[in-house]
UniProtKB/TrEMBL annotation:
Occurrences of domain WD repeat-containing protein 75 second beta-propeller (ranges): 322-641
Swiss-Prot/TrEMBL GO biological process terms: positive regulation of rRNA processing; positive regulation of transcription by RNA polymerase I; rRNA processing
Single GO cellular component term: small-subunit processome
Pfam families referenced in this protein's UniProt entry, alphabetically: Beta-prop_WDR75_1st, Beta-prop_WDR75_2nd
Domain of life: Eukaryota
Name this protein carries in UniProt: WD repeat domain 75
Keyword Cell inner membrane attached: no
Organism of derivation: Gadus morhua
Amino acid sequence: MVAHADTRVVHRGGSKINFRAPVITQDSRFLICVSGECIKVFSTSTEECIHHLQGHKELVTGLVLNPSNHLQVFSCSEDGTIRLWDFTDGILIRVTLLHLKTPSTLHSVPGKRNNCEGCSRGHQCYMHLCYGIIYLCVDYLTSCALCSQGEYVASVKDNVLHVYFLNKKTFYRFALGTSGEMAARNAFTCVACHPKDDCIATGHGDGKIRLWRNFNQEKEYTFSTVHWHHSGVNALCFTPEGTNLLSGGLESVLVQWRYGQEGQKDFLPRLGSSIKEIVVSPDGSLFCTSHTDNKITVIKNCTKVSAVIQGLVHGDGVKTALMVDPRTKALVLNGKPGHLQFYSLQRDQQLYNLDIVQQEYINQSNLDQFEVVKAALDSRGSWLATVEQRSAKEVEISLKLWAFDEHTQSFVLNTTISAPHDGPISEICFSPSSQNSTTLVSVSLDGHFKAWQLTQPDPSDDEEASWSCDFVGDYHSLEPKCCCFSADGSLLAVSFKEVVTVWSPASWDLLTTLSQPPGAIQDLCFGRLSCSKYLLGATDKNLCCWNLLTCSLEWSTALDVSLLLADPLSENVAAFCGAEKTTDLFVFRPSEPRPHFSQQALCTGRVTRAVFAPRDEPLDGCEESSQWLNRSQLYFLTHNMELLTFLTKPEEERLMALSKQVAVLKKHKQEFLHTSCLLFISLFISQFALTLSAIMTLVLSILT
């Protein structure tokens, strides 16, 4: 990640636990997986996260158990290091610097226990042998696998299978049909090596599985084919004894093939989402599948799901805004299709899913289904508004209002409004809550914005509160784009093309209009606290700041702003700006247009979703350039669905110290338990000896 003086951009909470295949320990008690710059150790029985192994400075890219010590695990990272951990105590043992920054994986090599032997190059990958571990630096391969005897590496890309023999330093290339429709059907998707036989299994885009033999000869190779999956095979894995081959794909079904009798197969269906990786415990007692929705499923005895470890769901895209639930401090955004997920960033685990659409999702391409496209929470977390949409021949839209239920500690549907607008809804937002009234505003491409008012029933009626339309606004038949309330709720700003209209929610009078062409307003943001008199508007070319007291332009600057965001606890505003292939960040106060923090090339692609999450306690000891992070933490989503945030140096030092303290306490606890156990055994033996001596004395006295 990029660095900036006192801050670093890191994966912190909500990272992808399905980024690489997880590892199951020798005794099947623990499951180890990567999670951003961190490594997590889970209990396979309780789903509890036992340890966070922290130390890597960049993304962790591979894991493998230490072949010489089953209580240790190796990890590799884009920071160019291999680290050895004691995963039972959560302690870092050794760091090896390789100076390599290519996305990589790790594989253990039987019989190799020597120190580092340096690098060699196979076809499309570099290999580095170190402490019995092969460090593969992969050049954009689809998949690769190492023979369990360490004789060869099999890798696939596009329509070609490559087999590289490590000892002979030679490779063979096997290609399937590479032209027209045949190329897409034959494309390799995954690969696995048999643990005992010279057999390589490959998955393909048409759902077929091929078993390759005699591949040490480029012209006399053979393969057999089996077929069940209706689409591409995503994952393959042999069991430790090689008696079964496991496969998975889009169907969310784990298929178990009998090796040598591939006509016989068993199925474990309804695993929830597409299977991405499959691993098996060393003793074969546990199967583990990782899924495209950032979930890991633990399967016992081949037939029963015994544990589910759910991370932050990373779908194809987030259509809602990123929100923070005021009650639970959880991050709220799109989850499974048709759902919103509530994810605790503090505990780094999902709290629950809320089914918005309440219809069965069918996993089929080109099928129009309802999806959640907008969501908003009021400032107290008492109400949730959602917009669901289906783009069939005619756009179908529903606006739903959900009330928080204290008994169930979740949201319950209160009001459903079918066809709230005649066109797609581009924005919804709540007014800052007051005890007297709550207002929701929706903006639509039909040329109108509507205000929805919460109506309280008569105390004598046995009815619930409900929502109804209170006002419909427009401006010269222009198409509105976005809206926002001022911090105190006394003003509402709605953009219509190049014009910003300012309304009074108390009377719904139009107070003033602001304009600064060229370019349509894409985002609006009121200033906070001492900067509450300012209103910011962003186009694809300019960022403008208006003074609402004088109704005049205060300043403007040429920026391509993709997202404008105000910190609710300070005067700071974050502007994410698109560069050629990256995103830049500027943090400023509306009263002072010169930014007090800026970072170029923050990440690749455009950032269109971000949120300020309030901290439980303000940070201390930050440098001046990072003091904007004292009250709130800024999270943002990249174009490839990575959740990133800023980590300050004092915060990082405190986390590392806390991690070390926890590890030391756990070690002392284990030593105490061990000592107590030995003491108990010693006392028991002493007491037993005394009792035995007394019995012998009594027996001797009786005999004499």
